[in-house]
Amino acid sequence: MSSNGDAVFSCRGLRVSVGDKEIVKGVDLEVRAGEKHALMGPNGSGKSTLASALMGHPGYRVEGEIYLGGERVDHLPPHERARCGMFLGFQYPVAVPGVSVANFLRAAVSARRGVDVPVREFRQQMQAAFAELQVPKDFVSRYLNDGFSGGEKKRLEILQMLMLAPTFALLDETDSGLDIDALKVVAEGVNRAAGPASGVLMVTHYQRILNYMKPDRVHVFMDGRIVRAGGPELAHELEARGYDWIAREVGLEPATAAAEGSRS
Amino acid sequence: MNVDTQHGLAGINQDYAERYGFHDPEDYFLKAPKGISHELVEMISRKKDEPQWMSDLRHQALDIFRAKPMPTWGDTAMLGEIDFENIHYYIKPKGEQTSDWNEVPEQIKKTFDRLGIPEAERKFLAGVTAQYESEVVYHSIRADLEKLGVIFMDMDSGLREHPEIVRKHFGTVIPTRDNKFSALNTAAWSGGSFIYVPKGVKVDVPLQAYFRINAENMGQFERTLIIADEGSSVHYIEGCTAPTYSSDSLHSAVVELIAMKGARIRYTTIQNWSTNVFNLVTKRAHAHEDAVVEWVDGNLGSKLTMKYPAIVLKGERAHGEVLSIAFAGHGQHQDAGAKMIHAAPNTTSRIVSKSISKDDGRSSYRGMVKIAKGAHGCRTSVECDALLIGERARSDTYPTMDIAESDVSVEHEARVSKVGEEQLFYLQCRGLDPDKARLMIVNGFIEPFVKELPMEYAVELNRLIELEMEGSVG
Prior knowledge:
The complex is a heterodimer.
Chain A: E1 7-18, E2 21-32, E3 36-40, H1 47-55, E4 61-68, E5 71-72, H2 78-83, E6 86-89, E7 96-100, H3 101-113, H4 119-132, E8 143-144, H5 150-164, E9 168-172, H6 180-193, E10 199-204, H7 210-213, E11 217-222, E12 225-230, H8 233-241, H9 244-249, H10 255-261
Chain B: H1 16-19, E1 28-31, H2 38-47, H3 52-67, H4 76-79, E2 91-93, H5 106-114, H6 117-124, E3 127-132, E4 135-141, H7 143-147, E5 151-154, H8 155-161, H9 163-169, H10 180-188, E6 193-197, E7 207-212, E8 219-220, E9 223-228, E10 233-241, E11 249-251, E12 254-259, E13 264-271, E14 277-287, E15 292-299, E16 304-307, E17 310-313, E18 319-328, E19 333-342, E20 348-358, E21 362-371, E22 379-389, E23 394-403, E24 409-418, H11 421-428, H12 434-450, H13 455-469
Parallel strand pairs in B: 3-7, 6-9, 7-10, 8-11, 9-12, 10-13, 11-14, 12-14, 13-15, 14-16, 14-17, 15-18, 16-19, 17-19, 18-20, 19-21, 20-22, 21-23, 22-24
Antiparallel strand pairs in B: 1-2, 3-4, 5-6
């Protein structure tokens, strides 16, 4: 753990609305190089909205400031944020029928680097990433996320993350719906994504993955706000006691938290 | 929210004018005045020195054309815009037909050079014909195929050199009175391809015909007849382009295919007419016992296309496929589809139709599957996918099923999807700009079609699609 690197990501006073409804109600966050953060909260708390909005989803109205490295990026469209080194791992990766994984990856890696990657070099890089994550070779010729199982999709998200080498990776429930082997693969990928010049924010409502990825910071997110922050011990406390007690402590209705508890 | 209203897409076929839309100065041997009459039909027939039966057939056909009403389906409003009196029905370019590119008149040679025809022939074709206006100006076939008895020539030469085969089959698949436009074609036909593949001969690489309209208000009426004898196989490819004019031209072909017992015919079309061309084509095949016929039909250009490649499965276990894509951009209507007639037991068929509509473009799937009484044990599947780009794009599906037997399997599936915001967002999150992302989605959509094309055509088609999709002006 090295938490004295420069900030790879930060946001200040972030508010996100859909129509008239405010979902994210003022969030400040900073992730430094080498750090892994976890943002935990019950379903319906606005976690996914926060993640999509940080990436620039066009369906939201966003106020506040977002920085990647030292650069302010909140005015940039998603593809430019991606090129600046931001990565969003999707909770529900979208299928694009007819587009092979290989073609897609090559286009993405080329876009990230700003130049067309030579075929041979790309192939080597892809094969290495496939081997590392134990992704079956036949993935390359399959159509992007089309007919993939939940676990396959998540593996592919992690594979994309490693190949694109983001400076800040934002993972939206990439751990949900995985068996233990897939979970380990995801956690390993996350661990690798937090390097000397890069950091990770894992958005999740399960503590499970945190056993494998060991976050430096844990943020508890409820009703559109970060209501508590702490070290890894906070995640264990959440696992042991659920979300309700924090909800009560900060004066929120524990209803959403209770509904969540019954699902895990 | 619709993403495309934020990033306006530019017009369809952006470099069409430069690549295909140019025209040569008119320098013809003969250009018939506008309009069609018995005098004109007689003149065409005499110029071609045709046998009496063909001449008679033309005259009869003209009467049928005049008596037949316009189709009452398709885009009747657009059809109503056709002014039959404002069309040149026959134009003969200068020079005689040749099998030596160097002998093709300079201007025409330049045109076909620019369209890449001789290059394609050298690279990957077994034979080529190139039609300019009403006549085929160049034709060649690989010597070894000719030795095996394969006939590949323009239809006029076919009638002259193989009158007995032509007379036996001409109009047997598509009779004159089939529809108004088949009648018009029969009256005014000129050019097109005549192919005969002898028993057991497999033509391993494609034969190609390229159709070029040059003059304004031109009417092109090529006539094609392909006969694959028992156990033979052939792949025929046609491409077509025209200059862009402000007034309309008419292309109305009739294509008849006959696949004898155990034969296989694949007929591939990449239609990229300029957007002032009415493309009203009748295509039908007879598939005999154990024969396979496939129409691979790509419609990118034209103002209005009405085309429904048909297969009559006449012999037991015959198989028919229609795989089509249509791309309708601004001002275009692609009314395309397929017809499958299961007239024999244990016949099978598959229709896959994909359409993309963009701007105010409109595409319609119009299809018919018929399983006749006594055609037991047939299987058929129809799959229609439409992709809409932008709020004004339109797609309609008009399927008809007429099933007279119960021990058959019939599947039908129709889907309309939009280039979804979530797909775009996902690809954008991986660094692709909206134009690239949209193109990737469209290319993925047509992938099942593209992979059926010879590589050179696949590359060209992808390039065309790219041009049609590019140019976000923001």
